[in-house]
């Protein structure tokens, strides 16, 4: 996609417009930080992650503004959108208005299962994510993949695989690409979902101390199914998952 002139790419891919603007903003921010560091300017009030990266012992080729701007996109996405997309309580939390203790929420098996399923279905991208092994041959079953050859797999094919998940439609990454803010992401999900579900029930299941109830509003399976080959977007015209609140 980066081989296209930006004006052409933005007309062909609607999603690319906001992405290109985001990358350009990050690029300008990184260059400003680089100028501060080159001038040994210590007057800035607070540092961003780019200050740390530019002063790290990484090879210089890994610290170019263009390289860091590209890396900032998945960094921001992993730290915000993924947790936001995925967001027995009455006994564990008797008072729905009390502050929720993270430790108490982490001990609830069913809530944990709900969050994990939400993460599995919260696809970061629907396109292929290539990986290149530069220092050794990859062995897969009876095949050997030479060094330098891109290997890729789409997240939906893995997360919605019926051989792994018996009913995949109705995990957080591991390895070198693991989520840097994994503990914060888990805390956001536990506290956000736990608080919401403790205070609001539904028509069929409602506790005596619930503050209200929720019902899906004009929402069907098509509003959550992936319908795009690059980003995990739903069908055109969908208004997403909508909920009605009742007292």
UniProtKB/TrEMBL annotation:
On whether Oxidoreductase is a keyword of this UniProt record, the answer is yes
UniProt entry keywords in alphabetical sequence = Iron, Metal-binding, Monooxygenase, Oxidoreductase
Q: Which GO terms describe its molecular function?
A: heme binding; iron ion binding; monooxygenase activity; oxidoreductase activity, acting on paired donors, with incorporation or reduction of molecular oxygen
Q: Does the keyword Chloroplast apply?
A: no
Instruction: Give the cofactors, semicolon-separated.
Output: heme
| Family named by the database record | Belongs to the cytochrome P450 family.
| Protein name, as recorded | Cytochrome P450
């Amino acid at each position: 996609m980066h081989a296209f002139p930006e004006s052409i790419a933005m007309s062909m891919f609607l999603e690319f417009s906001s992405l290109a603007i985001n990358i350009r903003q990050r690029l300008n921010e990184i260059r400003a930080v680089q100028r501060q560091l080159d001038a040994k300017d210590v007057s800035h009030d607070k540092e961003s992650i780019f200050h740390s990266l530019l002063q790290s012992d990484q090879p210089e080729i890994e610290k170019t503004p263009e390289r860091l701007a590209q890396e900032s996109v998945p960094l921001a996405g992993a730290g915000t959108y993924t947790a936001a997309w995925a967001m027995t309580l009455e006994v564990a939390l008797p008072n729905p208005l009390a502050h929720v203790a993270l430790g108490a929420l982490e001990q609830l098996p069913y809530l944990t299962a709900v969050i994990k399923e939400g993460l599995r279905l919260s696809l970061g991208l629907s396109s292929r994510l290539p990986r290149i092994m530069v220092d050794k041959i990859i062995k897969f079953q009876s095949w050997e993949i030479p060094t330098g050859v891109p290997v890729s797999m789409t997240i939906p094919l893995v997360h919605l695989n019926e051989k792994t998940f018996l009913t995949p439609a109705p995990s957080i990454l591991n390895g070198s690409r693991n989520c840097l803010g994994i503990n914060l992401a888990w805390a956001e999900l536990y506290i956000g979902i736990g608080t919401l579900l403790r205070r609001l029930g539904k028509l069929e299941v409602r506790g005596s101390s619930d503050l209200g109830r929720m019902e899906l509003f004009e929402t069907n399976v098509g509003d959550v199914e992936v319908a795009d080959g690059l980003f995990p977007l739903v069908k055109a015209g969908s208004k997403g998952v909508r909920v009605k609140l009742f007292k």
